[in-house]
Amino acid sequence: MHRAPRLATRLRNGSRAMATAPKTPQLLGLSSKYLLPVYARPDFVLSHGEGSYVYDTEGRRYLDFSAGIAVNALGHADPGVVQTIAEQAGKLLHTSNVYHNKWAPRLAELLVTLTQRDGGLGFSPGTSGATAKVFFSNSGTEANEGALISCFFVLQITWCTGALKIARKVGKDRGTDKSRIVCFENGFHGRSMGSLSVTTNPKYQAPFQPLVPGVDVGVVNDIKALDSLVTDATCAVIIEPIQGEGGVNAANTEWLVALRRRCDEVGAVLIFDEIQCGLYRTGQLWAHSSLPVECHPDVVTMAKPLANGYPIGAVLMRDSIAETMTAGSHGTTFGGSPLACAVGHHVLSRLSDPQMMAQINATSVYLEERLTELPKKFPGIIEAKIRGRGLIRGLGFLDSTQPGSVVEKARSRGVFLLTAGKNAVRLVPSLNVGRVEVDTVIETLSESIEEL
Ligand SMILES: Cc1ncc(COP(=O)(O)O)c(C=O)c1O
């Protein structure tokens, strides 16, 4: 009868299970014996967390200022998230998309109405009326694949003369005039073949050549190059308004407006990948919510924080894109499950609460104030300007060998940070992080940089 609450209690009291768990060296041994070695990880095993803190199997505590790479927006083991998972798992976990479920339409409605409330996708803040659609996936890379597929599908119907296949992403179709995709240097869009093809980092791409063909690579903020970059042959342009992995670089508003204008001139679909920078990380729903509608995209992709760590991704698109997608044109087994969408609805409802937004904005101001102390203290080491906005921030280092070592030193002091691009340390904490945690991270950064 009351399975859900009992499960929630068990999840919260995870420490009880730890008593019988294997010891750290045993777990590390299993890991190296059985897991594909595609990750370079430090020698400890995380066992549980609470808020912005995580603990390893030796009982050491860490301040997680990386939030699982911009994922745990409400922190670890949030009681509301735990309860939602427990209750929904006890009712209906998965149905496949052969059937309707209660939560996918409600989460889609929330995404659209919040976009209308806060601004985005061409809506000024305060717009009303349903004028956008959502497709749910399981991850960020799948959301981008879905977005690219939508573009091909739209353009196949509206502009292309031939039968441009959705299967273009596997590199089959090259014969039509409008099939090229534009992406940008230092962008990161995921590891599946289509998303990888527009992620221009040679480290990620080189081992997997040949990739999906027909990709043109531009430089963010280069206005002069736009006309030759985005042409009549371009079907889609994909960009992160604030690059995460690539170095926490924000695109200029003026350039984004010019990019939007150029997409309209040639009839290309503009996709904003807000997988890392969206969903209130900048204090507003989208990183582009605060920008003029003249630069807004046709399609927004999201993932990471939407269900606070439970896997989910989504593509939000204007009706003009959505109207050409029909039954059977795209699909997934797991995407849009009742569990993922119930958690997404819970998380998004809390993040969009005006009080929560005010708190995110206040913490963002405080973090910026404290971060600006660092270039003053270390002028020959750190770039003067702090990168990014809100709670996606980057510290640029003049010597590109230093960010990795700062991240390691901070970790040895019990603080998780990330590198970004060639020369930055990235800070993407939980969105409910407090001033105490900000103070800790600044102190740790300061000590770690001093030790360089
Ligand atoms: C901007 C951006 N797009 C796409 C992705 C890929 O998301 P996922 O790892 O969920 O496939 C990431 C992941 O870091 C990202 O930061």
Automatic annotation (TrEMBL):
Its cofactor is pyridoxal 5'-phosphate. Its main location: mitochondrion. CDD domains: OAT_like (cd00610). Gene3D superfamilies: Aspartate Aminotransferase, domain 1, Type I PLP-dependent aspartate aminotransferase-like (Major domain). Keywords: Amino-acid biosynthesis, Aminotransferase, Pyridoxal phosphate, Transferase. It is found in: Mitochondrion. One of its GO terms (molecular function) is pyridoxal phosphate binding. Pathway: Amino-acid biosynthesis; L-arginine biosynthesis; N(2)-acetyl-L-ornithine from L-glutamate: step 4/4. It comes from the Eukaryota. GO terms for biological process: L-arginine biosynthetic process. It is an enzyme of class 2 (transferase). One of its GO terms (cellular component) is mitochondrial matrix. Its EC number is 2.6.1.11. HAMAP family: ArgD_aminotrans_3 (MF_01107). Belongs to the class-III pyridoxal-phosphate-dependent aminotransferase family. This is acetylornithine transaminase. The lineage of its organism: Eukaryota, Fungi, Dikarya, Basidiomycota, Agaricomycotina.
